[in-house]
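Why do we bother with holo predictions? Because pocket geometry can differ from the apo form. Keep that in mind while you read this record for iron/sulfur cluster.
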Amino acid sequence: MPRAFSGIQPTGDIHIGNYFGAIQNYVKLGQQLGKQAIYCVVDLHALTNPAAYDRDLLASRTFEATLVNMAAGLDPEQVILFAQSDVREHNELAWIFTTQTPVGELERMTQYKDKTSKLESVPSGLLMYPVLMAADILLYKADTVPVGEDQEQHLELTREIARRFNYHFGDTFPEPQAVHAEDALRVPGIDGQGKMSKSKGNTLGVLEDFASIWSKLKVAPTDPARIRRTDPGDPHHCLIYHYHKLFSDPGVTAVVEVECARAGIGCVDCKKFLMTGVERSLTPIQDRARVLRADADVVHGALERGAREAQAIAAPVMQEVREKIGLVR
Ligand code: SF4
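The structure, written out:
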C-alpha cells in the first residue's frame, strides 16, 4: 500500500483555498490509506520565519492548525497526525542529509531565492529548509506526497537526496512522487486577482464570521461585461460562479448558470444564494472547531498519540540509517 506524507503549516488561519486545495485531499487520502496517511504540523519549518520567534505564538499556531484540520474532517483516529518537533528523528535525518547535499543545489531553489531576495541577513535554516522537508518525507519512506505545484522543485530535490543516499549506502529510500488535488488547488481570491493567498489578503477564512464573509462577497467582482442588471452575464467569467461550484448544490449552480446567461438573476441575489451554500458548508466545521476549542485536551491528546505512532515508524528507519552510515559500531 502506498504511504503518503504531507506537511501542514502551523497556522489556524485556514482559508477556503487551503480547505478545497489541501485539506479535502488529505481527508480523501486518509479514507483510502488509513494509518498510511501521515500528516505533520511542521513547527520546525516555521522557525525559519522570524514571525515565529515567539514561544506562545508558535505553540498556539501549532495547536490551531491541528484543531482546524480536525474540525475540517481530518480524523486522528484514522490517520497519523502529529507535530514535527515531537519526533526528534526529523532533526537527526535532516542533519545527515545536510552533510550530503551540495550548497549549490540548495541555492538554486526558487523559493529560497524568492524568500531571501529582500533579506539583509539570511538565516541558514532557510537554505536548509528543503533538506528538512526531504527528511520529513523520507523518514517515513513515504512514496506519495500531496503538495501544491509550488513544492514540485523541493520534491525533485528530495528524490535527488534519496538517490544519492541509496547510491552511497545501499537501497534505503523510495523516490516519492507528488499527487496534486485536481482543480481545487486554484481557488481564486475574493478580489478575482489570481489564486487565494494569505499574503495577498484576498481570502475567505474557514472559521471566519459569516457577517465578515458576506461583507467581502457583497463587494466581490462579478463578470466585468455585465454592467447593468439587464445585461446577460457569462458565469464562466465570474468568480462567484466558481465559488458556487465549490459551495452550492449542483441544482443551484445549474440554475445560476442558466439564469445569469439570460439576465434572469441579479448579482446580489446570486451572491445571496452563494452565501446560503457557504453557511451550509462551513457551519459544521465551525461548530466542530468550537467544541474542540472548549476541550483542548482532545487536540493535545491527538498530537501525543500521533507522535507515538509516527515515532514507531521513524525510529527503525533512523536506526537503519545510523547503521548504514556507520554511526552504530
Ligand atoms: Fe456572476 Fe452570478 Fe452575477 Fe452571473 S449572476 S455575473 S454568476 S454574480
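The chain has two domains: 4-186+296-325, 208-288.
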